[in-house]
Amino acid sequence: MKSWRMKDIVVMAALAVVFGIVYLLFLPVNVVMMGLIGPIGTDIIFGVWFLVSIVAAYIIQKPGVALVSETIAGIVEVLIGSSVGPIIILSAIVQGLGAEAAFAITRYRSYHVLVLMGAGVGAAITSFIWGYFRGGFVALDPSYVVLMLVVRIISGAVISGLIGKAISEALAKTGTLTSFPLGKTYRHRKAG
Amino acid sequence: MHNINPSIKAGTVTLAAIVIAFLFDPLALLLYIGWTIAVTLLFGKVQIRKYLLYLLPFTLFAIGMLVSTLLFAKIPENPSVTQQFLFWDLPRETVQDALALAIRVFSYSTLSLLFVLTTDKVAFILSLIQQCRVSPKLAYGILAGYRFLPLLKDELTTIRSAHLIRGAKTNTSKFSRYKQYTIPLLASAIRKAERTAIAMESKGFTGERDRTFYRTYHTSWIDWIFAAVMLGAIVLCIIVSKSFQ
Fold it and tell me: CA–CA separation, A178 vs A182, rounded Å?
C-alpha cells in the first residue's frame, strides 16, 4: 500500500466505478440465467464479477491492487445503490483475495496470461466457498455442486482472465496507460 | 435511523447477514424479515411505495431461487414424506430447504435496503475513515472515483456522437458494439482519474492520517443499542419460532 501513488488509487477507483456499473448491469442477466437453467446459470457468467481485479492488477502491477480494486468496486456498488447491501463488500473482499493470491504466488513479477487466468480461478474458488455458506448450496445435490464449481472455475479463467487481458491490452494500445507498467511494456514492444 | 453511525450500521447489517447464512428455519427468518421491514419503515422515514419498488427485483430473484432449488435439490433422506406444494406433491425436505433459501435471499434484501435507504453515501465513506481507520488516501480516492459516475453518462453521449459524425458503423452486432464503447469509455475514465489525482496532490492533499475534517462522525451509545437490538432480534426470532414447533 505504501508504494501506491495517488494516481494509482484514483485510476483504480475509476476502473472500479466503470466495472461496478457493469457488475450491477449483470445482476438482472444473472436472474434470467438462473431462471432459465438453474443455479449453474450464475456460474457460467460469474467470471464477469472478477474482471476489475485482473484488469487493475495487470495495468498497475503492484501488490494489493487485485484485492483493493475489487473491494472498491464492491463499495461503489453499495454507493450506487445495489440493493444487495454492504455484504457485497465482504463478497468483493473474498473474491479479491482469491485473485490476489495468484499474483502473490509469482511475487508480483509475472503477469503472464496463465497468471491472469490463475487469478480468475483463485477468485472463482474463494467466491465459491463463500457462496457455499451464503447461498446455502448445502441444499443442492452434491454432484451438481461440483459441476457448479467446475463451471465457475472455467468462467473465472476465460471471462476474467482472457477477456480481462484483452481489455487491458486494448487500453494499452490507446496510449492512455503510458505512466503505468502495462503501458510501458507496450511502448517498449513497439519501439523494439 | 439516519443519524446512526454509518460504519456501525454497515457492520450490524453485515453481521446479521452472516448469522442468517447459518439459519435454516423458515419461520424465524420470516419473523426477522418482518422485524427488519418494520424498523426500516418506522424509524427510517422511508415511503412505503418507494420501499416496495426497491424490493421488487429481489422478490423476482427470490422466486427464481425457489424454483431452481426445487428443480435441482439433492435427493432427500426420506422421499416418501411428501407435502403438497401448489399443485405438486414434492418431498417435504426439498420443499422446506427451497423455501428457507428463497426466504433467506429475501431477508438479505430487506437488511440491505435498511442500510441503503437510510444512509448518506458520502457520510458512509467519511465514517469509514474516521471510525474504521481506512486510509484517507484510499477513501478520498474512492470518493473522487465515485464522482465520475455522472460524468460517465456524458462521456458515453460524446463517444456516441463522435462515432456518428465520423460515420462509424452503428448497425454492428451487440458484442462489437460493447467493444466500441467500453474501450474509449475506460480510456477517458483513466485519463480523467490521472488528472484528478494530480489536481488533488497539487492542492496539498497528502493523504496523511492526522488530517482534520469538516464533517466529523462519532459513535454514541445509541449506535451500540441499535447494533445490540438488531442482532438480539435474531435470537428472539429463533426462540419464538422454536416455541411454535
Answer: 8
Q: Which of residues 112-131 of B touch A (CB under 8 A)?
A: 112-116, 121, 124-125
H or E element, residue B85: strand B82-85
Instruction: Report how far residue B229's alpha carbon sits from residue B226's, in angstroms, rounded to the nearest whole number.
Output: 5
What predicted TM-score, i.e. pTM, was given to this entire model?
A: 0.83
pLDDT of residue B25: 80
Query: What is the distance between the alpha carbons of residues A159 and B130, in angstroms, rounded to a whole number?
Result: 37
Q: Using the beta-carbon criterion (under 8 Å), do A9 and B197 form an inter-chain contact?
A: yes
CA distance B221 to B207: 30
Contact between B74 and A141 using a beta-carbon 8 Å cutoff:
yes
> For A53-106, how does the pLDDT look when each residue is reduced to its tens digit (9 = 90+)?
999 999 999 999 999 999 999 988 887 766 566 778 889 999 999 999 999 999
Mean pLDDT of A15-20: 90
CATH class, range A6-191: mainly alpha
**Interface ipTM > 0.90:** no
Angle at the Cα of B21 (from A50 to A36), degrees rounded to 5?
55
Q: B96: helix, coil or strand?
A: helix
Inter-chain CB proximity A171 and B187 less than 8 Å: yes
CA pair distance A13, A69, nearest whole angstrom: 7
Q: Where are the domains of chain A?
A: 6-191
B89: part of which helix (H) or strand (E)? strand B88-91
**A13 neighbourhood in chain B, CB within 8 Å:** 141-142, 144-146, 193
A9, B14: Cβ pair inside 8 Å? no
Q: Along chain B (245 residues), what's the average pLDDT of each consecutive run of 10 residues?
A: 88 88 83 91 86 82 74 62 61 75 84 87 90 88 88 87 82 69 89 92 86 87 93 91 82
- The helix (H) or strand (E) run that includes residue B88 is strand B88-91
pLDDT-derived band at A167 (thresholds 50, 70, 90) equals very high
State in Å, rounded, how far the first CA of chain B is from the last one: 34
As a whole number of angstroms, the distance between CA A21 and CA A77 comes to 7
Q: What are the residues facing B90 on neighbouring strands? A: B83
Helices (H), chain A: 6-37, 40-44, 51-60, 65-80, 87-105, 113-134, 142-155, 164-174, 181-191
Q: Which residues of B138-169 are buried (b: 16+ CB within 10 A; e: fewer)?
A: bbbbbbbbbebeeebeebeeebeeebeeeeee
Tell me how far apart the alpha carbons of residues A74 and A17 are, in angstroms, rounded to a whole number: 9
